[in-house]
Write a structure and sequence with these properties.
Structural class: alpha/beta
Helix content: 40-55%
CATH superfamily: P-loop containing nucleotide triphosphate hydrolases
CATH topology: Rossmann fold
Distance between the termini: 26 Å
CATH class: Alpha Beta
Number of strands: 5
Strand order of the largest sheet: 2-3-1-4-5
Largest sheet: 5 strands, parallel
Radius of gyration: 17 Å
Amino acid sequence: MTTKYPERTEDLIRDMAWAVEVAVKTSKRSLIFFPSHDLLKKSLSIIQDRSTVLAEDPGISQEEVEAVVKQYEEGSKRVILSVFNGRLAEGVDLSADLVICLGVPFTPPKVKQKILLKRLTEAIGDEGEARIYGYILPAVWSAIQAAGRAIRGPDDRALVILADDRYRQLLKLFPRWFSERIVGSVRVEDLPILLRGVWNG
């Protein structure tokens, strides 16, 4: 799977929706993060069983955040769909058994981002390094922050799945405490087998 902008097709939407449905079927508390509200909304629209799913809306208020967290903690809803850098991806304690990061949260290639990279290149003197500091590392840290929602104490444990082929090239930029816990790679279509092995094996 990849969420590169040219690859954001209907097939990707179906794959994302399927990943959510797999999480739902585990009956485990799950946090699933999307690269954009648009992809989240489109995926949610084709999910068949939404009875245990909570989804973050754009512009969600603090009161709505608290209501979502309450439903999740009470167990009436077991799966939260959010976006990287969203209200539910930062500053909220949400223990979970499973975290799925769908895609790499790169900043959209808009004018503001291009200006930032240009200024960084001028300051650093190297376009490659400017891209690492201004584009790649912020995405890596956003993914780590999202994954960290599930680990709020020394006794917490969670399975974290980084669902995007590009993470293989980015692992060298992850902190050691994170990268040393990565046990391998798996195809998205093999998620059910992996999850059964983790919780039933």
